[in-house]
Design a protein that fits this description.
It is elongated and about 105 Å long. It has helices spanning 20-34, 90-100, 116-128, and strands at 61-66, 72-76, 81-85, 105-110, 134-138. It has a 5-stranded mixed sheet with strand order 3-2-1-4-5, covered by helices on one side. It has 3 helices and 5 strands, in the order αβββαβαβ. The protein is of the alpha/beta class.
């Protein structure tokens, strides 16, 4: 079989790399322009305006202490009676105590070494129980 013109065409087995930098640059620009970043999600807590300080009776405070291990210690007002529970049990305890005292305030105190998720679990339980008066603190 004869080849026209008498020359064989040589097929290159190399990938042309002369325009690789251009392609990489265009892909970079494309992804920078089309990428959307989600807004920071945080806690949706509406804080009250700063006002005058009021003294609250200890009988109207339910102290909720969050330990680094995830255990939650409940201390009721003046009695200083302590009870250690799981974060899931906070909702039932709040409902029971607020039925006896409608002026009850949840004072959530978190240990600085406690993971953030333990505080969120307690706040979620309080929100599920319908608590509207919550005080947040970090233990020292």
């Amino acid at each position: 079989m004869a080849v026209l013109g008498g020359k064989k065409s040589k097929v290159s087995d190399e990938i042309p790399s002369s325009s690789m930098a251009d392609i990489a640059f265009l892909l970079l620009i494309f992804f920078l322009v089309t990428t959307t970043f989600p807004k920071d999600k945080g806690l949706a807590i509406v804080l009250p305006e700063q006002g005058e300080t009021q003294e609250v009776s200890q009988r109207n405070i339910l102290h909720i202490l969050i330990n680094p291990t995830g255990a939650v210690t409940i201390r009721r007002g003046e009695s200083q009676q302590e009870q250690t529970v799981r974060p899931d049990d906070v909702e039932a305890i709040w409902r029971q105590d607020v039925a006896q005292n409608e002026n009850l305030i949840a004072a959530v105190k978190t240990h600085p070494d406690a993971p953030y998720r333990f505080m969120i679990d307690v706040l979620d339980a309080l929100q599920s129980a319908g608590s509207e008066r919550i005080s947040l603190q970090i233990l020292e």
